[in-house]
């Protein structure tokens, strides 16, 4: 991500978009040259990354802040790629940021056994096995599942589901339930139309994701705290199931917090789940506007030990 710069033609276009649909005015615009993670809050360790911004994007910076370690962060209102606007609300690390002189971030570590005259020091035994032997429960408050819709060919909007639940068993069997009634688009009438015309929640109130995670295959996350893993999963919507293999980033954020996030958007098509008629009704209800029949989906799921 480059430093603050003079507004380019793309920046001017972004400014017009800001006037048209942003929640507030941009303080300035920032060029994003590299793939950049978007976090839910400016925090030196506890924030959750819930999206990845692509290269060569133009970002609208709404606010600036510093985390407890003194690092500088920017809050983005939206970004544009090839003159297409993507609404977001999250934080990215400011370019060229470094901790102020003398600032340190304390690291929490396990106590090291102390050697005695009679017995040499031994590494902690069983911690890794105990970590993977836990059952895990999805923490809805720290989880996100977003999808992008495109109407009229160019209008891009980010929607989300607010009610998620799930678990991962000690053997790696995982299930996530998505309450379709919790769809949130920012417009009440559109939420109602999607619930009943597209998802048909009276008959199909939930979508489910099932997967089997191999504890041995992800063993390195215990030592390295973060890894990428190709996760085979099954998505079931309206009683129809489809298999996907999704690259995910698994992060060990502590002994009692694990994050599983999409490494890149997953494209889901209405045709795969018998939703063509529902999409047509949704289009007609909105004035016969064309709606792209597929959506990129991203997620960040936080898990805590089962009680």
TrEMBL record:
Database matches in Pfam families = YceI
Signal peptide from the UniProt entry: 1-25
Which superkingdom?
Answer: Bacteria
Supply the PROSITE patterns for this chain: PROKAR_LIPOPROTEIN
Annotated keywords: Signal
* PANTHER family reported in the protein's UniProt record: PROTEIN YCEI (PTHR34406)
The protein, known as:
YceI family protein
Origin organism lineage: Bacteria, Pseudomonadati, Pseudomonadota, Alphaproteobacteria, Hyphomicrobiales
